[in-house]
Design brief:
The protein has 185 residues and is an alpha+beta fold. Helix content is 25%, strand content 41%. The protein contains four helices and nine strands; from the N terminus they run βαββαββαβαβββ.
Amino acid sequence: MNKRLFIAIPLPYRFHETIADLQNRVDGFGKLKLVKPENVHLTLKFLGNVDVERIQEIKDRLSFIRATPSFNISVCGLGAFPNNKRPQVIWMGVKRGFEEIKTLQEKIDSSLESAGFDRDRKFHPHYTLARVKFLNNKAGLTSFLREKHFLAFGEHTAERVVLMESRLSSGGPEYSVVREFRLKR
């Protein structure tokens, strides 16, 4: 039996209203699949379908996270992948905490590589807000993203990293925590 797993830093509840507001504003530019505000997170590594018998090994390999000091993250700016002119994923970015996140992600990658998981070739810390299906006002969305590129949305402290299970359903993915790793205070 397999479980679909990923490793993430959760975004606190106090950001949900901001996310909903941003999503309402971008939703008018076309058909988008919005991420439920309570599901928005910063993915450190997507593991995919993993045999349940390997989960304990993954937990063990991630136990080093507990020695990582907590750090502040400033959520700042809107953007799109692959870029603002060809948006497929709309995201909120990270300013403060960027280097700490990259370092943590690299350590996770390294720890899991020896267990047979591929390293991430490109990692850019972000919080996904929506996936673009099609646009009826591409210029409007591009302009909106450019206008909000440096906008600060707030700060939070990364206090935990979670190993999450994602169950796909017709109403969108449903997440549950498999293991939580508290960062050192």
